[in-house]
Structure formats: C-alpha cells, structure tokens
Amino acid sequence: MRKDILYIFLFFFLSPFYTRAQKTHEIDSLEQLLPGASAEEKAKLFNAIGRRYLRIDAAKAFEYLSVSLRMADSLHLDQVKLHATDNLGIYYKDGGNYSEARKCFTDALSMAKSEGNKEDLGDIYQDYANFFRRTAVYDTALDYMLIALRIAEERNDKSDQVSINTNIGSLYVDREEYDKALKYYELSEKLSIEINDRKDLAGSIIGIGIVYGSRGEYEKAIGNFERALAICESIPDYTLMGNCYADLSMVYGLKNDFQRAVDYQLKMLQLKQKSGMRDQEADAWGNLTSLYLQLGQEAKALDALANCIRIAEEIKNKDTQRFSYQVAANFYSKTGDYKKAFEFQAKYIKVNKELNNEQRNKQAMELEAKYQSEKKQKELELNQEKLRTRDSEIRQQRIVNYSVIAGLVLISALAFFVFRGYRQKKKDGMLLGEQKAIIEEKNKSITDSINYAKRLQDAILPGDDFVYSYLKESFILYKPKDIVSGDLYWVMPAGNSVLFAVVDCTGHGVPGAMMSIVGHNVLNRALKEQKETVPGRVLDRMNEGVSETFRQQFGNTTVRDGMDVALCALDRNAMKLFFAGANNPVYILRNGQVSEIKGDKFPIGNYGEEQHSFATHEYDLQKGDRIYIFSDGYADQFGGPKGKKFKYQQLKECLVRISDRPMNEQKVELDRVFEEWKGELEQVDDVCMIGVKVLYL
C-alpha cells in the first residue's frame, strides 16, 4: 500500500522537517538485521533500506537498490525484483533522469501485471502516475491514478483510497479543473474520518483550502488551512504544520495583508530553525525578503536577504545558493540597483550551470555503475560458457590443425602476388591516413569552437527559474536547428511591467548565433542604459544599435543581416499588453478566439536606408488570456503527409485546441505536434516560442 501523497502548494514547496530522523532510525533498525539474514532476506532488506534512503540520501538509495536488484535477479525473487525496479524508477525520477525512470516503471508495471498481485499493481500505477505528473503529462498521470483508485476500491483498502483521492485532487488542480479537484479532496476527507486517520484528514483539508485559494475565495481557503493546522498541532505533525503556515502566508499575501503573511512566515522560520535543516531556513529568509519588500520595509528585507545568502554560502548547498542569488537579483532589480542585480544574476547563472553539469556527471556515474554490474554478469556467464565448450574445442583442434596445413600451402602460393600489391597500397594508405588525420583534427577544432559558442549563447539566455519568477504561468519552446541558434528569447522586469521578446536573427547555426548575441546586447542596452520600456521605442533603439554595430565593424560593405522581433510589455497592474513587432506578430487567445496584432513590415537593421519608427500597440487584457510570440521556424517547417509547410493558420488552430491546458502541458503538446509533423524530414530553421497566461486582476 502506497502512502505517498502528492500535496501541492501554491507558493512554498516544503520538504519534511522531522521525517529525516525518523527515517534514519528505521534504517538503523533494518541494518541491524543484515548480519544474520539469509540471502533472500538480505535482498528484501536492501530494498527496504534503499527505499527509505530515497528522500534523504540518493546516492545510498541507489547503492542499496542496485544490490537488491542484482540479488533478486540472481535468486529469482520476482517480487523483490519488482519492488527494487519500481524504487529505482523513483530514484531516477527524483534525479531528473526521466528516460531511465520511464524504463524502470515500464518494466515494473509489466512484472506486476504478470505477477497478478493487485496491491503491487496499484502501487506501480501510482508511482508511474507521479512520474507523468513530474514530466507534466497530466492526462496520462490522471488515467494511471484512476486505475490505481479502481484497484484500491476492488481491494476495499480505504487507507489507499484516501491517498489516491488526494493525489487525483492535486492533478485536477494542476489542470485548473477546480470543481473536480474539490470533489476528490472531499472524498478523501470523508474516508479519512471513517478510518480515523488524522494526518490524511489534515492533508485532505489542505487540498480543499488550495482549491478555494486558486479560485480567489481567500476567506474559505484561510478557514480550511486553520482547520488543518489545528489537527496538525493536535497530532503533532510538524511537516504539515509547516505546510499550513506556508499556505496561510501565501493567502494573506494574495489578500495584500503582508503583515499577517510575514507573521506566518516567521512561524515557518522557527520550525525550520528547530529542525536544524539550514537550507530550509535560507528558503524562509528568502521568502521574507519578498514580503518585507512588499511592506516597504526595505531595511528588514535587506537583513532577511543577507541571512538567506549567508546561510546558503555557509552550507555550500548549490540549490540553496541558486535560490538566494535569484532572490537577490529580484530584490536589487526592484530597488533600482541594477548593477548588483546584474552581479547576482551572473552568480545565479554560474551556479545553475554547475548544477546542470553535476546532474550530467551524476547520470554518467550511474551509467558507469550499471555498465560495471552488467560487465561482471557477462564475465560470469562467459566463464561458464568457456567451461562448457572446452571439451568440444579440444576435439575440434585436430581438424583445425589439418586445415591450417592445407591453408599454409595456398597462402604461400598467393603471398608473392599479395605482397607486390600491398607495397603500392601501403604508400596510398599512408597518404590517405595523413589527409584523414588533418581533416579529423580540423573537424574537431571546428566542433569544439561551436560547442564553446553554445556555452556562451546558453549563458545569455534567462534561466527557467528567472523566467518563472516573473512569468509564473508560461513556457518557452526552444529548438535550435544546429548546435547553436539564430533565435533568441529574452525576459526582463521593468517596474510594474515584464518585458519579453522572441528575436529571429538572419540565418541559423554559427552566423545566426553571432547575430543573436548582438541582439541580446542591444536589447539590454535599450532597457538598462537608455531606460526605454515602451516596446516601439525599444525596437527603435535596437534598430539604431544593430545598424551602428555593423557600420563600425564592416564600414560600407554589403552586410545586410537583420532581425525579426516580437516584443511585449505586460503591465500587471493596469492589465494591459503593449506590443511592437519587426515583421512578427503576437497572438492573444481568449475564449477560444485568436486576436492577432501584426508587427511592422520591416526588420531590425536598415543600414543607411530610410529609418522607420516602430509602432506600439496597446491591448486590454483579462485574467486567463494567453499570449504567444514566436519566430517563423515552427510555421515554416516542412512535413506532414505531403511534405508541405505547417503554416500559421494550422499553428493558430493548434493553439486554440490546447489553449485551456496548463502552460507547461501546452509546451509538451506543441513539441509533440512539431516532431510528428516533421517526421523524418530535416528541421529547416530554429524554433522559438513563448507562451504566457495572464494571472493578475
């Protein structure tokens, strides 16, 4: 029976505070059983220990689970093999290695179906559903969780039904289907009361509060969070207490009652300090930084920020450092100290790249460990095969000896002719080898240069965390045609507005990438140095900057490279969109209808021709509107049954069809449609698209 519940929270993500000590105690107890255990019992114990390590020490979890899987395979323990495979899937999922995770869950599901044990089958469906939720494939996640619920109902396991109903409610919140989410949370609440499970009851009530908070019914949300908090305090369950404090802080923040939001966040901070988990303490200080800034208490915000950064750097936790640097960049940007904002954004980018590299190294080590394990198994099988075939080889040796003698006679006759031809071929081969080595060396040098250019280009693109901090409900679909791209996406806050752009530079590959760096620089200069925030005037400054750059570098040559741009400024207070475009439009979807605002019909980069001014268009927004800007790579892709272009009309129809889905799910679907349309054909151009959902009133 699986008791892991997918609680979701709108503002703070909370890790357990006191479960670490509990898990460690359980592990110690299990490890004490190992010395006197049989081989079969050890395989089971290794799996149980590995599962408990999953949330507190991933490396040890992998070590124990791998040993359990090898032993189960060797001893033909099918159920242990199933559980170890499933738990390794959780390990890979939590580590972001989704291809290995999916393979594990698929194998575990196949084994569970063959085994016929309904409890195991229900558990695997739940874990697989969690995987699909993590990868934003919500439809499949919901299908699998509903199958798990049906199995739990057939088994009359009400405890399992409670956790599954809560998980289904969370999935419907992800899909913004709040009426359905409320139905399943209330079912979970009712079942929790029946079986007298106060912890799951509190979790169900928290879910109900989340639904009301998502609907904007803040008083009902507060009532449910306070009801859940009272239950948590009576147990006591400090993890769920922390969740309640966080959610209450969030709701009061949405009500603009920032003082009460601070009060609950301080209670949260006290729990984290008592727990001794300093990374969680740093997170709380970071949240307080934002809340104090909302209250206009800049000195307190600065103190909270200093604590956040100090703890992050003392504990040398890169995830926490990344968070603290992002908070600092946001703080200094909002207080007008753009130099420090830039410095901390640079630190954020550096740590983010280091974390990505560590993740890749971790995956490589896992593959190496897997390879070594498989290698040892193959060596064992090979030795056994050698023993079986040794006698047969001895019998065949006499036949081989006779064959060798006959062969030597033939070889002697041919040797003279072969040797004469060989001398000439050797001369030709040496020449070809030298030429091949030169070509390979040049190719390596070129490839290394391109890969270095990619690292430079990646460094100028805003990170996901930075984008989501300003455009919470959004996606970026970015598919370079080559290693480097001529398309660029750009996001930057400016007062109450957020500016975001897609820039499509002439060409793709290395030439396009060089142009994209120019585009990034002139955009930043227009905003930060020239203080332009109106989209039309920003494009005017871009036009001047690009033209001046190439006049300085190339004089009166025939360089005519330019850029197509779609640039938006989203004013969250006034609920207005300001747009300017150089050849490219913006689409705004509302109630299944597409409004298109076209850009001006000339690019960035006129090079001495008549200078045009770019127009700024204003559009009144409503909550729930979807905004899309893009380069031409998606619509110009050849494919489909007749090998034709995708075209903009089909893109509009696709956006209308998926517009009611969450933004991250839209990205997955757009990528799937593009790849399916392209099929086996080559990608013709870089692809870049930004989608934003309007959340503010």
Mind explaining what this structure looks like?
- The protein has 697 residues and is an alpha+beta fold.
- The chain has a five-stranded antiparallel sheet, with helices on one face.
- The longest helix is centred in the middle third of the chain and has 123 residues, at 338-460.
- It has helices at residues 19-31, 39-53, 58-75, 78-94, 98-115, 118-134, 138-154, 158-174, 178-194, 198-215, 218-234, 238-254, 258-275, 278-294, 298-315, 318-334, 338-460, 464-470, 509-529, 535-554, 648-658, 663-678; strands spanning 474-479, 487-494, 497-505, 563-571, 576-582, 586-590, 593-597, 617-620, 626-630, 638-639, 644-645, 687-693.
- Helix 12 runs antiparallel to helix 13 (258-275).
- 41% of the residues are buried.
- The model is unreliable at 2-21, 399-419 and 552-559 (pLDDT under 50).
- It is globular and about 85 Å long.
Assembly state here? single chain
Terminal CA distance: 43 Å
Total number of strands: 12
Q: Return residue spans where pLDDT drops below 50 for at least 5 consecutive residues.
A: 2-21, 399-419, 552-559
Please state the structural category. alpha+beta
Work out the radius of gyration.
31 Å
Query: What gross morphology would you assign?
Result: globular
The level of helicity is 55-70%
Strand content: 5-15%
